[in-house]
Amino acid sequence: MRDHLTSYFWSGDVIRSRSVSEIVLTDTLDVPMPPARLLADWEREISTRLLLESGDIETLPLARARVRWPDYSLCVKAMADWTSALGLPDVLASSDIALMACRGAKYHHDGAQYGGAAFCNLFLSEDKGLDLHFASTGHRIPLTRGTAVIFDTCQPHGVIQRRNSGFNVTDFTPEQDCSQVFLTWELPIEDAHVGQALGVAFDVALATASPIDEERVLLNDTRVEVCPDSGRWQRID
Hints:
With about 240 residues, the protein is of the alpha+beta class. It is built from four helices and 15 strands.
């Protein structure tokens, strides 16, 4: 019997269930390199304020970055054109956007907080030998400037060294140039275009043994978490 994942997420004031998509949409877009002054500013933020450790993901100040980023609008337009071509018209304009930084990323899923969304990311850093890896589906996407990706927040994912099969803390030590900066949008999974593009089915679990009052992901109706090193699902005892 095939394993099945179910996401329970807040839809307004009620918890709704849905399937978890294995589809990953990706392309490499032609976006300008951020100016050297802005790149240096990001590196200072990462090393002195965020103090990112191996596998960490944190937010960078987007408003300040836009002041020093004359091509910001071109990056957003490139993503808007790409998503429109995928059949997602105007979805970015109504979605929350943030600027993020990571030093690799331990495997995780975001279904306990963002189960009602799909992530749409545009990577802005140069190729540093890192991949965005989806452990359950096998998708492995080389990260370079212009890498665009849309995926289900509930799929286990991590940023790992291209030569490795899993996440290793020692691959992302402070003396290594391994940080990645990216723009991310939260696309509403209930948007008809988003749900269709990812093949999501809704209300797949109408009854459960006990009431569910928080966002979570179940594997074969069992609560699970993600191993941060391998990306494999493991039972929560």
